[in-house]
Amino acid sequence: MPAKILSNVYRSTIESILTSSITVWYGNCTTQDRKALQRVIKSAQSISGAAFPLLQDTYNTRVIRRAHNIIKDRTHPQHHLFTLLPSDKLREDITTQALDTKRHMDRAVDHTHHVRRCSMKMPRSCDVKRYEDWYKVGTSCVMYFNETLNFTDAEFRCRKEAPGGHLASVHSRRANNDLNCIVFKYNKKSPRIWLGGFELFNSRKWVWIDDSNWDFQAWVPGEPNNHFNKEDCLEMNWKEKGKWNDDRCLKKKNFLCSFTY
Ligand SMILES: [Ca+2]
Ligand SMILES: [Ca+2]
């Protein structure tokens, strides 16, 4: 049979079936499906000796044509999807997106650098929305604040910083290490920080300001010594890395905030 007739037979039967409503289904096909369909066209080509367009090209052409029709038709339910953003808004969107991407990359770089610097493993990022730059320690998210405040002001700063926020409490050796890692990442030179522990009215009983249980401690040997009977608040990294000391609450130190979720 002449190639022209074969080609017409193919186009009027196989191709019309193969590409019927192609804009609807082709986009969701797997690569495997697409290859299988393309094989049908290939067979038709080798039988008829004529060249047929690639299925992908047919799809592209039809999608573009369909989009044009929708753009032209104001009554089409999907018409609004094709309205152009005003140029200012568009620029703003692109800038925000670019900044977001940069911020994410900076963070990623930051986190990676630190893994190398810190002898212990750096805790991973907090998975609470808007607090992704905080760190996940146990069931809490923690952040270092490089801002010297007395114990009370630091606590209020933490409350303002996050819902349920407080100066950080510590409940395990591992968490203590994680917190210390965060501190040294941000301020190696001056790592003395407030944690959320304080002595309850000279009772020698220590409590956490976030009301969690006092179930772990890591004092420097000889502490808490309540020096001059004036030390009621808990600091970390005085004298020994990762160890605790009682200090005067009015002293100003950097601090760690945390919230549990
Ligand atoms: Ca005391
Ligand atoms: Ca002390």
What is the alpha-carbon Rg in Å?
32 Å
Write the CATH homologous superfamily of the largest domain. Mannose-Binding Protein A, subunit A
Q: N- to C-terminal separation?
A: 75 Å
The tally of helices reads 7
CATH architecture annotation name of the largest domain: Roll
Count of discrete domains: 2
CATH topology of the largest domain: Mannose-Binding Protein A, Chain A
Query: What is the share of helical residues?
Result: 40-55%
Low-confidence stretches: 109-117
Tell me the strand percentage band: 15-25%
Q: Which class do the helix and strand fractions yield? A: alpha+beta
Care to count the β-strands?
Answer: 8
Largest sheet properties = 8 strands, mixed
What ligand molecules are bound, each kind once? calcium ion
Order of helices and strands: HHHHHEEHEHEEEEE
| CATH class (first level) name of the largest domain | Alpha Beta
Keywords: Disulfide bond
Protein name: Lectin-like
Domain C-type lectin: 137-258
InterPro entries: C-type_lectin-like, C-type_lectin-like/link_sf, C-type_lectin/snaclec_domain, C-type_lectin_CS, CTDL_fold
